[in-house]
Amino acid sequence: MNWEAIYHIDDVPYAFPVRPDAVKVRIRAKRGDVRKANVLHSDRYVAYRNEMPQELELVASTASHDYFEGVIVTETKRIRYVFQLEDGEGNSVWFGELGASPNRDMAGVFNIPYVSPSEVHELPEWVYDAVVYQIFPDRFRNGDESNDPPGTEPWTPDASPSAQSYYGGDLAGITEKLPYLQELGINLLYLTPVFVSPSTHKYDTTDYLAIDPHFGDIGQLKALVDEAHMRGIRVMLDAVFNHSGNQFFAFRDVVEKGEASRYKEWFFAERFPVVESPVPNYVTFGNAIATMPKLNTANEELKQYLLDVAAYWIRETGIDGWRLDVANEVDRTFWRDFRRAVKSEKPDALIVGEIMHHSGPWLRGDQFDGVMNYMLRTAMVDFFAKTSIGVREFSGRLSMIRMMYTDAANAAMFNLIGSHDTERFMTMCERHGFGWGEEKAVKEKMMLAVFFQMIYPGIPQIYYGDEVGMRGGEDPECRRPMLWQEEQQDGELLAFYRKVIALRRQYAALRRGKVRVWLEEESLGVLGIVRDDGTQRVAALINNSPLEAVVSAGSPFGSGPSGFILDAMSGVRYPHEGRLQLSLPPYGCALLCEE
Ligand code: ARE
Ligand code: CA
């Protein structure tokens, strides 16, 4: 056994409360090393050696490591525990706070002195059932031509927008299309910024307390939220608190009054007077983007101002949460206070940060619920669109990402294949797909990725237009106006989206079930994933290869209650006697369910 690979700490993500009386523990070992993993635990104040060993389950594997997990239930909320690992050759090792040792006492013990209820990362129940649709408001639907900005361009979905183009989309348009979204099956909307701003994307806020007149007004936002709620759809807005726009009143004040401005501490002026050109002498978002002065969110006065903004929109319009822009560059104390402010205004509000990389520090339950899962997107792009990694590597990356976070954080991720900041997924499939221009295979790869989104833990995210086959490279190409003409939409793709979203809503195991890898058929390109919520078990099969795959494997359904297993994708029934044999078409998938 490789002792050096064994790892656990008594902290997130290796130990975290899942209920006030239960803590999940995880331990890592070298892949394939450990045949049996146990945790021995008791109350901290009872005499040693009275513990019962509790066996842990192998829950995830990367190329190099296996991860074992178990839930310790505690009546007293005070836990003392130590791990004991066994390999296949009868060797055993103890692992405690002093490290690994063949001698139990030399390994020491881990302690969870007290599980405070406030440490449990509680998610609103609805989050488990959510499927989110992202809208870039200027480009979704023009519902009111009277508010169009000057120079509004014609709504041509194959046009090439510039960074400054306006297309006239607005809140009225979104409200008008709620029936379409309801029929699609989504139940959460995320709108990129809607507050007053001089740009088309509105990430440079002029007024945090007013809707941009080109999008509508607060009455129209209220109407949108009310109508959405009536249709079972929640609404989240974009909080751009890392920076403001340079037209924001406080920044104008600093530019005008310099050091005498009472808002000078709200920003990071390098010297006074503050100048915006030729090079800004203050900190901005990104690299010297003068129109986006960075906000000093550690400043108490500014903090209160922004927390009031967050509460105001919840209170006045009933929105259900916030997506946080450039979330990893904002003061973390600010985010902790933000969470308190938002949840005290609306206890079941959802908070999702925008972070493109490892997000552990923000996902301990004290700041965000989840993040936009760009790490998962990269894995999906590599596996489905580029085929630059195989089944094992993909599966390993999924495991790695899950093992970075708590169960709650994993459930609240926005699992996206693309956004307003990335090339569209279909375009990536095309670009990396087939020299021989196989239109069909390109679409099938896209469908596989969407199927995967729907069977995986976390909130599947759909970027407007992906569902009808819109194409587009990086910003601004990925922000074309929505394709509404039915004859131009990809009806087959849209039908597929509706079908797999409906399946996610039909099978509770896909939303709340634990996730286990069932099959990693590297040579076939087949991945099998099981979801199980304790009452229902479903198994998803994905054939990420241009060839038909004949899968013959031990069934994940045990002996099974009936003689048949249903593939909910095709409607085909397979005989079931402990073994499953079925064939998947090229880039095909199956969702197997007990009947
Ligand atoms: C505009 C132009 C672009 C141009 C850019 C540079 O449209 O074509 O390249 O200017 O000057 C908003 C607008 C953008 C606009 C930008 C600046 O939507 O259209 O770009 O403002 O005016 C990092 C951050 C991440 C951030 C991305 C963009 O970590 O938070 O950069 N995303 C948010 C929003 C954006 C928004 C802003 C922030 C600013 O979602 O839409 O942009 O409010 C790697 C790095 C990431 C990096 C990423 C960039 O993955 O690791 O950290 O993300 O690249 O894609
Ligand atoms: Ca309009």
UniProtKB/TrEMBL annotation:
Classification via Pfam families: Alpha-amylase, Alpha-amylase_N
Molecular function terms from GO: hydrolase activity
Domain of life: Bacteria
Keyword annotations from UniProtKB, A to Z: Glycosidase, Hydrolase
Disordered: region residues: 142-162
Domain named Glycosyl hydrolase family 13 catalytic: residues: 134-504
Gene3D superfamilies given in the database record: Glycosidases (3.20.20.80), Golgi alpha-mannosidase II (2.60.40.1180), Immunoglobulins (2.60.40.10), Oligo-1,6-glucosidase, Domain 2 (3.90.400.10)
PANTHER family xrefs: ALPHA-AMYLASE FAMILY MEMBER, MALTODEXTRIN GLUCOSIDASE
Identification of the protein by name: Glycoside hydrolase family 13 protein
